Amino acid sequence: MLDVFSDNLVWQxxxxxxxxxxxxxxxxxxxxxxxxxxxxxxxxLRDVIGAEGHKHELVQNLDRLNVQWQTSAGDLTIGRxxxxxxxxxxxxxxxxxxxxxxxxxxxxxxVGIDGIRFQRPLGDLGELDLGIVLGDDARGxxxxxxxxxxxxxxxxxxTFTAMRFSGENLLGFGIESSLxxxxxxxxxxxxxxxxxxxxxxxxxxxxxxxxxxxxxxxHFNGAGTDESNRYSTNSxxxxxxxxxxxxxxxxxxIPALTWQVSSLLSxxxxxxxxxxxxxxxxxxxxEYSLSDNTYLGAGYYQxxxxxxxxxxxxxxxxxxxxxxxxxxxxxxxxxx
Length: 336
Description:
There is one protein chain. The protein is mainly β. The chain has one domain: Porin. It is 3% helix and 53% strand. It is built from two helices and 20 strands. The chain has helices at 231-234, 238-242, and strands spanning 2-5, 9-21, 48-49, 56-70, 75-81, 113-122, 126-133, 144-153, 156-165, 168-179, 182-193, 197-207, 212-221, 251-260, 265-274, 280-289, 294-304, 309-311, 314-316, 327-334. The longest helix has 5 residues, at 238-242. The chain is globular and about 60 Å long. The relative contact order is 0.11.
């Protein structure tokens, strides 16, 4: 990572290279290292250095290559950069540009996309956010444009979003507020043109004490289906290719609980519950601070649900999470 700062100019160049090792019998989970699907990049390096399709692959990613001008009118960023949207805590319906899949192991570093973005402050707490995302298709099927406005309205944080991406139109709305001693939020998106569907996330969080924090979020995925035998064919539709949709069902409940055991150790438990097929994805994570800059982490992913079934026409998924392998992992992170 190379970040160069001057009085009103910032340059960013981030390049990553690593070795992916996997068993041929296990599917490859999204690691958050290289982009997948519609990558919203004008041009790019090859994902794999050398031969592809092996158990051991050397992968690369030029993930940041941008310059930012900071002026009194706002910040203008040109080049490859990270773009995130949304006000919900877990699933963001307005976040369509390469969002993290909930099963991704590395969610700390967002994959960059190519674009031009201008962010202008509106008062003390508001912002006008305008941008163009550049894909490799000049006709616009892998490009996008967006306009977002965030402001305070009646003591609530409110966001309005309008977007054109991959031949689709998106209108979004988000609100963050408080209810007694709880935080509450709602984020919704309506997509129309070639496809038509809506998505919504709403929830609340609460600090039980200085050491215990919990939240619960409900997500409606109008691009999904409540029939598990349609998961495979439905996942090939446009919302999954370019709309940032990765959940297969329609209705989800997402509870989470965090325990700050000490100043050095924290534990977290989260569930993604598919209310349509009753399958679950449970994640347990622990993080321990070895020093000011070094962290040791461990996690366990448990998947529950009906397994696949063989039919005369092929293989049918009986549930969203029943066919996924359980995962145990450790990680060591050093910041410099």
